[in-house]
Amino acid sequence: MQTKGIRLNNPGNIERGAKWKGLSDVQSDPRFCSFTDPEYGIRALCKVLLTYQRKYNITTIHGMINRWAPPHENPTAAYVSNVAKWSGFGAKVPVDLSKRENLAKIAKAIIRQENGVQPYSDDLILMGVDLALN
Q1: Gap between the Cα atoms of 57 and 130, Å rounded
Q2: Domain extent listing, the chain
Q3: 56 sits in which H/E element
Q4: pTM for the whole thing?
């Protein structure tokens, strides 16, 4: 059985509220967005990360994940450790998310953490990344 994030084409588990590009006409979940296709869910995940960097100057995995999955709701230290390990970046090393490959690595790691799997091809991940960057 697929996780909710995969089923909703929302692998970052983005909560409802914003008017995201690619939202499904029917929002069946009371908390999380449903997207028409996974690349739009990946785009939303990447847009949030880019906002952290561009608007709030959050440049490290430690900073990003502490905002994405705050300690009052999540085991944030383990989340940070996993994303750092799976992306190949140090937890407290600045990462330039305007670089396509960097954003893709972190998005893939967050998808894996959020869903227990990362089922998407590199091409699909890059589609979502490109939608976010352009």
Answers
A1: 21
A2: 37-133
A3: helix 38-56
A4: 0.96
Q: How far is CA 15 from the centre of its chain?
A: 12
CB hemisphere CA count around 133 (13 angstroms): 16
Task: List the Cα angle 34/17/41 in 5-degree steps.
Answer: 35
- Tokens matching residue 102: 């960097």
Phi, psi of 70 (to 5 degrees): -60, 150
pLDDT in tens, 56-109: 999 999 999 999 999 998 899 999 999 999 999 999 999 999 999 999 999 999
* Contact (Cβ atoms closer than 8 angstroms) between residue 110 and residue 8: no
Give the integer Cα–Cα distance in Å for 124 and 53: 23
Task: Round to whole Å and give the CA distance between 10 and 75.
Answer: 21
Q: What is the CA radius of gyration of the chain?
A: 14
- Tell me the HSE value of 62 on the side-chain side, using a 13 A CA sphere: 5
